[in-house]
Amino acid sequence: CPCRFPRLLPASTVRLDRRNISSIGKLRLLAEIHSLYLQQNKIEKIENLDSFPNLRFLCLAGNRIPRVENLRCLPHLSALDLSHNRIRELDTEELPRSLQILDLTGNECARQDGYRDLVVAALPQLLELDSQPVHGNAAEEKTGRGFSSSEEDEDEDEDLLPELGFPFTAEQDFFVDLQRELAGRSRRRRKETLQEHQERLAELWERRELL
Fold it and tell me: Which SUPFAM superfamilies does the entry mention (predicted)?
């Protein structure tokens, strides 16, 4: 099952889908990450996501998750895909109130009587549930349309983070590797900026000498 909502992808994205990952490890703060793909793995518990305080998009589709938990630490989360897991009973108190799009199709909880009314009542900003539009909520009255990111969000997402080029497996502490990769990219960006600045200064001095 491919992850949904492709049109919503913010710029700062990390893809760890289909990597045979069995758990979400703990790591240091990664505030620049806005989208995280973890679909089609073997994850059994939602945990340690407080390392991504600015996360807006989370895909955990096609895992082995039995319950919704540990998501209230994501105050900016707008889109959540938990489709095709093993969730039997849904505790709506565990869902961030910021959610505008939620997908729980393929879970037993989504087939229970009163499920849709329960979720819609718990999430006042919800615009879409299981690929079906939600009408009459606070978000729709405020925006008059579906999900859209603000200009401020777009400005924050200017630097595109490309897909990671190394493998992750259940045996690896993959989040440690991720942290190292991001730190390395940050160092390279600073080095490139400094080099460009020095080259421009040298060019200015050359022009001054010619004058």
Answer: L domain-like
Which CATH code, of 3.30.465.10, 3.80.10.10, 3.30.1540.10, 3.40.47.10, is assigned to 7-135? 3.80.10.10
Give residue-wise pLDDT tens across range 12-69.
888 889 999 999 988 888 899 999 999 999 999 999 999 999 999 999 999 999 999 9
Question: H helices of the chain, where?
Answer: 115-122, 138-143, 151-156, 174-210
Interatomic CA distance for residues 8 and 185, integer angstroms: 24
C-alpha distance from residue 164 to each of 38, 73, 112 (Å): 13, 25, 39
| Residue 80, strand partner residues | 58, 102
Single-letter amino acid, residue 208: R
Stated pTM of the model: 0.66
In the chain, what is the straight-line distance between the N-terminal and C-terminal CA atoms, in Å?
Answer: 65
Q: What is the pLDDT of residues 108-136, one digit of tens each?
A: 999 999 999 999 999 999 999 999 999 87
Rounded distance between C-alpha atoms, residue 85 and residue 88, angstroms: 9
The helix/strand/coil state of 167 is: coil
